[in-house]
Structures are given as C-alpha cells and as structure tokens.
Amino acid sequence: MKSNTLNFSGGPGALPESVLEQTREAIAALPETGISVLGMSHRSDWFRSILNEAELNIRCLLGISDDYAVTFMQGGSSLQFATIPMNFATKAYAPPEYVTSGYWSGRATSEAAKVASMKISWDGRATGYRQLPALHALDVSSSAAYLHYVSNETVEGLQFPVCEDAMPVPLIADMSSDFLSKPFRPELFSMMYAHAQKNLGPAGVTVAVIKRSLLERIPDGLPAILDFRTHVSHGSNYNTPPVFAIYVMTLITRWLRFDVGGLHAMQSINERKARRLYETLDSLGDAVTVHADRCWRSQMNAAFTFGDSRLDEAFIEMAREQGIVGLEGHRSIGGMRVSLYNAVTEQAVDILTNALTEFSLHRV
C-alpha cells in the first residue's frame, strides 16, 4: 500500500490516488494546454472552466439551489472567523451567537469578539470539550444576527449530527473537516464554509457557500477583499486565486461525483471506517481512553490516548515503522489522533486497527 493512503493526519490529509496521479501529470504539463498547472494564468479560459466545474460539482454533490452563491477564497477558516462578523454582525440585529465546542470554535469565538459584539450561546469548556449541545435546544435570541458553530471539532474528535431543524436565525457553519463527507440539507444554512486541507485537497482555497439574501445585509465601506460581495461578483477571481489548490479541489470533486458515486456512497464508506476504528478502540477496554463521549464521536477524527505519553509515543513510532503516519495528537490535548478523511481507504484503516490490537497485546 502506498504511504499516501496510510496518512491519518488531521491536515493536510490523504488525497485519492487517482487525483495524485493526475496532479503529478499536471505539474509537468496539463493535457489540455501543455503548460504546467503551476504556470497557468488565472485569467485564462482554461482556469475559468476549472472554476465553473468546481462550482458545478459542489452544487451537484450538495444539491445547492441558485439561492446560494458558491465562492472560492483564500486565508483558510481563520480569515473567515473575522470576515463573517465584519460582513454580517451589523447594528440592525442583536449580537451574533456562537457555540464554543472545542479548539477551533474557540478560535472562531475569539476572533469574532475582536471585530464585533457577540454572545456565547454554549461553552463546553467545563466538560473538557467532550460533549456537544443540541442546536435546536439552544436559547438563541430571535433577533441575533446569526448563530455560528463548527460542525466537526478536528482536535477533540467531536461531531454534530446532521442538522435537521430550521433555526430562528441565520445558521452559519464551519464545516472544514467534514465538508463533502456526507449529505446534509443546505437549505437549513445561511452560510457554510470549509478550508481545503481535509477533504478538498491542499491548503490554499476555502469554499464559502452563502445565501444570496444574506449578502444584502453587508454594510458598505468594507475593504473590497474582505467583502463577500466582491468575490461573488468577480466569480472567485478578484485577485490572483490559488490556481493549483482549486485545480486539485476540482479533481477531488470529480472523484466524489463520478468515482465514488456521490455523498451517500461516501457516507457509507466513512461510516464503515469509523465503525471499524471505534470498535477496535473499545475492544481495548481500559487500555485506551477516547476523548469524546460516545454519542458525540466524530466519523472524521478520533482523539485518544493509552494514558501514558510514553506509550502513545511508542505506538506512534511502531506505526511509523509500518508506514502509518500522522497520528500525533494536537498540541492542545496531546495523545493521538486518527483522521479518517474521505481519501483514507478502508484497507488503510484495517492496517491501523491491526497495529493497535498488536500493540495493546504486547505493550499495554
């Protein structure tokens, strides 16, 4: 098995082998142009076709209507954390509300507070970020500008279930680590965004899907590059975009549509991978502690520990010798983390779980 498919990193994550092969070829010369993708002009007809296809693929995969604009931006989710309140936390509404459920939603909350008045609707700090709230049960002001949450906490391995209930205020979700991993109802959201280096390719591009009616709230006077309307009106080509990252993202969305067979098929694969991993971890009993409470466990990221940093490091080293990489836990909680992004294969998960079982029998 190639080492790419044994990459369990929290990001950048594994890429599909077919996408890697096409990318290798494109770096030398694109079949359509004879020019390296690294040297293609963002003003070329070729790149415009790539932008159009990427948008079409995302619309088809998610079933997004024309009520929404699809844009490709830069700066990752970190830039969105500040840009969203700049655009939508206007004085015409009560302060936006935020769910703080882990490391990255905490970052979003902190950045928003620098830009505008805001309110924390729920904070999981007291539980060590091991649980999540039910969104529909939150006491959110009906006049709030919006409610923001992170659908999957990459660091702690927590994931909200698919949203099924309409909220009384615009719902905005950072879906960076589970975007395109399963179907959901986009019509329940006013904005969804995701940076690429999980399920969408290399870092550099962030997908933002925004309800057009929400764009009408944006105040005049923002710097052009921080105004969402700029990117919508320029078709994601206002300033020089990350051509390479968008190209690879387009290949991945092709793979999802035509090789995998859509998001329902991708969901089934991801469910099998997660079930295999968690069954193995649970079978180890007290030897392993999974960070997230069982009912909130993520299908994308599992954070766990053998309870001793020396054992964690020993397993990481043993796994590395077998070609398994990317298991180090996030610096904020330590331990280990296994990320099961779309391109991680079921065979790779089998290899990992066998290694976990072997290690627990001989070392724990």
From TrEMBL:
<dbReference type="InterPro" id="IPR015422">
    <property type="entry name" value="PyrdxlP-dep_Trfase_small"/>
</dbReference>
<keyword id="KW-0718">Serine biosynthesis</keyword>
<comment type="pathway">
    <text>Cofactor biosynthesis; pyridoxine 5'-phosphate biosynthesis; pyridoxine 5'-phosphate from D-erythrose 4-phosphate: step 3/5.</text>
</comment>
<dbReference type="GO" id="GO:0005737">
    <property type="term" value="C:cytoplasm"/>
</dbReference>
<keyword id="KW-0028">Amino-acid biosynthesis</keyword>
<comment type="pathway">
    <text>Amino-acid biosynthesis; L-serine biosynthesis; L-serine from 3-phospho-D-glycerate: step 2/3.</text>
</comment>
<dbReference type="InterPro" id="IPR022278">
    <property type="entry name" value="Pser_aminoTfrase"/>
</dbReference>
<feature type="binding site">
    <location>
        <position position="174"/>
    </location>
    <ligand>
        <name>pyridoxal 5'-phosphate</name>
    </ligand>
</feature>
<dbReference type="GO" id="GO:0006564">
    <property type="term" value="P:L-serine biosynthetic process"/>
</dbReference>
<feature type="binding site">
    <location>
        <begin position="239"/>
        <end position="240"/>
    </location>
    <ligand>
        <name>pyridoxal 5'-phosphate</name>
    </ligand>
</feature>
<comment type="subunit">
    <text>Homodimer.</text>
</comment>
<protein>
    <recommendedName>
        <fullName>Phosphoserine aminotransferase</fullName>
        <ecNumber>2.6.1.52</ecNumber>
    </recommendedName>
</protein>
<feature type="domain" description="Aminotransferase class V">
    <location>
        <begin position="7"/>
        <end position="352"/>
    </location>
</feature>
<feature type="binding site">
    <location>
        <position position="154"/>
    </location>
    <ligand>
        <name>pyridoxal 5'-phosphate</name>
    </ligand>
</feature>
<dbReference type="InterPro" id="IPR015421">
    <property type="entry name" value="PyrdxlP-dep_Trfase_major"/>
</dbReference>
<keyword id="KW-0032">Aminotransferase</keyword>
<dbReference type="InterPro" id="IPR015424">
    <property type="entry name" value="PyrdxlP-dep_Trfase"/>
</dbReference>
<comment type="function">
    <text>Catalyzes the reversible conversion of 3-phosphohydroxypyruvate to phosphoserine and of 3-hydroxy-2-oxo-4-phosphonooxybutanoate to phosphohydroxythreonine.</text>
</comment>
<feature type="modified residue" description="N6-(pyridoxal phosphate)lysine">
    <location>
        <position position="198"/>
    </location>
</feature>
<dbReference type="InterPro" id="IPR000192">
    <property type="entry name" value="Aminotrans_V_dom"/>
</dbReference>
<keyword id="KW-0963">Cytoplasm</keyword>
<feature type="binding site">
    <location>
        <position position="104"/>
    </location>
    <ligand>
        <name>pyridoxal 5'-phosphate</name>
    </ligand>
</feature>
<keyword id="KW-0663">Pyridoxal phosphate</keyword>
<dbReference type="GO" id="GO:0030170">
    <property type="term" value="F:pyridoxal phosphate binding"/>
</dbReference>
<dbReference type="GO" id="GO:0008615">
    <property type="term" value="P:pyridoxine biosynthetic process"/>
</dbReference>
<keyword id="KW-0808">Transferase</keyword>
<dbReference type="GO" id="GO:0004648">
    <property type="term" value="F:O-phospho-L-serine:2-oxoglutarate aminotransferase activity"/>
</dbReference>
<comment type="similarity">
    <text>Belongs to the class-V pyridoxal-phosphate-dependent aminotransferase family. SerC subfamily.</text>
</comment>
<feature type="binding site">
    <location>
        <position position="197"/>
    </location>
    <ligand>
        <name>pyridoxal 5'-phosphate</name>
    </ligand>
</feature>
<dbReference type="Pfam" id="PF00266">
    <property type="entry name" value="Aminotran_5"/>
</dbReference>
<feature type="binding site">
    <location>
        <position position="43"/>
    </location>
    <ligand>
        <name>L-glutamate</name>
    </ligand>
</feature>
<keyword id="KW-0664">Pyridoxine biosynthesis</keyword>
